[in-house]
Each structure stands twice: as C-alpha cells, then as structure tokens.
Amino acid sequence: MNRYSGNEKGMSLIEILAAIVLLSIVIFSFYAFFINSATYTTINKKKLTAVDTAELVVSDLRENKTYRQLNVIGYHLENGYYTNSTRYAGYLINLTLSNVEDVESGLQEVRIEVLAKDTKQENKSVPFITEIYWETE
Fold this sequence. Notes:
Number of strands: 5
Structural class: alpha+beta
Shape: rod-shaped
Order of helices and strands: HHEEEEE
C-alpha cells in the first residue's frame, strides 16, 4: 500500500536557497543583537566602576583633611588638577578644588572627574563627574 501520491520529487534548489537565505537573515539579526548587548554591557561596566572609584575618592577626601595628607596617599598637583595615577591605575582622576572656601563652615567645593583609561579608541568612555563639599582643616 503506497501512502504517497506518487510525487517524490522533493524540494527544488530554489526552495532550499530561499530557506537558507531566510534562516541566515534571522541568525544575523540575533547576532547583531548579541553584539550590541555585549557592547552596552562593557560600557555600563565602565560606568559602574567609575562610580565606585569616585566613591573611593570621596572617602579619601573625607579621611584626609589637608593637602599634605592627600600628597601622602598619592595625589599630586598636575596641570591645575589633583590627580592620583598610582592608587587608581585604570582611571584618570581629576580633583578640581574651588578657589573660594566658605570661611564660616570650613567647606570647599571639590569637583571629582573619573575617566576610564581606554586601550581601544573605538570605545571612548564618558567621564563620571560629581561634586562634594570638602571639610578642610
């Protein structure tokens, strides 16, 4: 008993090529999605570690109340900014101290800029910037 209707030609070459083209379009769409996902994950990792580094810099400022103490832990004045390239080797740290100090409260405004050192030029990172008021002695 023959269950087939007698047409045993199978699929033509055009049908197979069309299926391969459609399948490759779907695969490349998913591939592009995963590539973008990996890129954004890398960028967000850099941002989060820059925020963590800025928090460490803020704790450095809270623990060290004088410029001399900042020099001891590795900060030095360079091009008008206090930088620390030894303690945070993967990042450029710039501390901009305001010229005006509130005499009554003893607070000085400090702008902290953290920029990840990037080995690849295609992934330029955006600096993380925050400001605090530093109590100096």
